[in-house]
Amino acid sequence: MTYHPSAEEIDLAAVMATLGDSTRLAILGHLDRQDGRPLMCSDFTALASKSNLTYHLGRMRESGIIRLEKSGTCKMITIRRDDLDARFPGFLDSVLKAAENMDLPALECEDEDETVEA
User: Fold this and answer.
1) Which residues form the HTH arsR-type domain (predicted)?
2) pLDDT-derived band at 71, boundaries 50, 70, 90
3) How many helices (H) and strands (E) does the chain have?
4) How far is CA 44 from CA 16, 31, 101, in A?
5) Are 84 and 10 in contact (CB under 8 A)?
6) Domains and CATH numbers, the chain
7) How far apart are CA 108 and CA 3, in angstroms?
């Protein structure tokens, strides 16, 4: 079973440290643009190698930013927006707004003005 901290266990310092990486910020931005629809790990292979993605997604899960749910042989990824908004009101929106102006890695399909399909 994959560990996810409870909403009360989500620590602001851990969340901020986790989001101090451009790849993880890019993952967060891509997830946010899906309006709650889950993405698969394979949707992010343009950002990093599989082993690096495993590391980044693990850090994001352990800090409480994302939730991974098994669906067959895939793991579906969503932002824990409700938990983060309840714990730190306005924080997630502020981070995402600031990240819009950063030069973050893009997914290949975004270069073609398409959205990532889940």
Assistant:
1) 14-93
2) confident
3) 6, 3
4) 21, 10, 20
5) yes
6) 7-99 (1.10.10.10)
7) 30
How far is 100 from 118, CA to CA, in rounded Å? 22
Rounded CA separation 61/77 (Å): 9
pLDDT tens-digit series, residues 8-50: 999 999 999 999 998 999 999 989 988 889 999 888 888 888 8
Mapped onto helix, strand or coil, the DSSP state of residue 105 is: coil
DSSP-derived pairing of the beta strands 39-40 and 74-79: antiparallel
96: its two tokens: 């995402």
Residue 90 CA to residue 41 CA, distance in Å, equals 27
